[in-house]
Design the sequence.
């Protein structure tokens, strides 16, 4: 014989000498219970068939908790002065729940239940995250506007109003989902991050940190959206699958050397440009490039080109890469010298490496795809 046990209702009073489980119906409570007559056998645990219908059992437990106000009583019967506060990161309200919310939902439910069983008063207000790009991106798609210019033309006030109405679109689906997974939260006294009192409380908390000298200004590398004109969180950069694997082009960059007194540039003929070729697989770093590095023990070759698109130049590149660049150097290129990187680093070769120069002009750089 199988027995249906309501584990969710075993909320013991820890400060009494005789611990009585709350939520388990007495005979009098059984008379008022919404359970079918055949299940009320006078025992707090009704008999169930050998092959239990678990979804049906779960639904009966949910109905029992609702009828007996089990969750509400677990809060009301605890003293206000013995409160345990559980900070729950709220979900985005403008999206439907999915399986990814199940695990975190159970974790968020276990901790408050445990603290309740220890005798603490745990009020669990459900929250809604109404800020951030998910809401804005959804509204942009609905309205057919995009970016700062589009939103400004549409009207910032109108755009914000539409965002406010859209973020609460799926609240009923969330209530059904969270309740069905047997998680105890208070939906009647929920909070929203777009509420004025909530935003004011955040600013107040930040002001307290500032007054205590705990706020400082520094630099941090963060993802940035040029379209939204705002830094992005790790979650937000996954909204448009930005971290998907992709094939980026490898580039060869030709930096023009400008120091006429350097031993390398001194070998150039009058009017002959001297270039340093560098290969990179991270072309997005070029705008912030500050210097070229050479290896002390790496061999480099000084090559003069006579034909092709790069004809009439003196090129410095790694000796091991000369054959790979034969198509760019021309079949009739001439290797003038080969030396170690220690010789090339005796003095700056272009203004970007010089402390007295404001920087190398953009026109002194050229690049072409090489892979």
Sequence:
């Amino acid at each position: 014989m199988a027995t249906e046990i309501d584990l969710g209702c075993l909320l013991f009073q820890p400060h009494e000498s005789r611990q009585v489980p709350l939520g388990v119906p007495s005979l009098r409570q059984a008379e008022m219970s919404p359970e079918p007559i055949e299940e009320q056998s006078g025992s707090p645990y009704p008999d169930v068939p050998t092959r239990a219908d678990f979804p049906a059992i779960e639904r009966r437990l949910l109905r029992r908790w609702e009828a007996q106000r089990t969750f509400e009583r677990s809060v009301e019967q605890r003293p206000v002065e013995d409160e345990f506060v559980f900070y729950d990161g709220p979900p985005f309200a403008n999206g439907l729940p999915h399986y990814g919310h199940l695990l975190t939902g159970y974790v968020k439910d276990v901790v408050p239940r445990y603290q309740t069983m220890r005798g603490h008063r745990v009020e669990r207000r459900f929250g809604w995250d109404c800020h951030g790009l998910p809401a804005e991106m959804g509204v942009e798609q609905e309205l057919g506007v995009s970016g700062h210019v589009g939103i400004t033309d549409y009207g910032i006030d109108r755009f914000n109003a539409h965002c406010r109405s859209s973020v609460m679109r799926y609240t009923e689906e969330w209530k059904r989902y969270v309740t069905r997974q047997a998680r105890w939260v208070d939906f009647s006294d929920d909070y929203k991050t777009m509420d004025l009192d909530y935003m004011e409380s955040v600013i107040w908390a930040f002001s307290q940190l500032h007054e205590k000298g705990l706020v400082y200004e520094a630099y941090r590398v963060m993802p940035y959206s040029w379209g939204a004109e705002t830094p992005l969180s790790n979650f937000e950069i996954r909204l448009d699958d930005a971290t998907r694997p992709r094939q980026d082009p490898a580039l060869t960059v030709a930096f023009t050397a400008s120091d006429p007194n350097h031993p390398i540039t001194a070998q150039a003929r009058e009017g002959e440009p001297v270039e340093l070729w560098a290969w990179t697989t991270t072309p997005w770093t070029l705008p912030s490039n500050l210097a070229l590095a050479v290896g002390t023990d790496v061999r480099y070759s000084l090559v003069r080109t006579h034909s092709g698109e790069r004809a009439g130049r003196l090129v410095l590149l790694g000796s091991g890469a000369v054959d790979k660049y034969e198509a760019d150097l021309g079949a009739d290129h001439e290797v003038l010298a080969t030396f170690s990187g220690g010789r090339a680093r005796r003095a700056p070769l272009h203004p970007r490496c010089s402390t007295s120069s404001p920087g190398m002009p953009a026109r002194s750089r050229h690049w072409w795809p090489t892979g």
Q: What stands out?
A: Residues 100-117 form the longest helix (18 residues). The CA atoms of residues 26 and 126 lie 31 Å apart. The radius of gyration is 35 Å. Confidence is low (pLDDT under 50) at residues 1-39, 346-364.
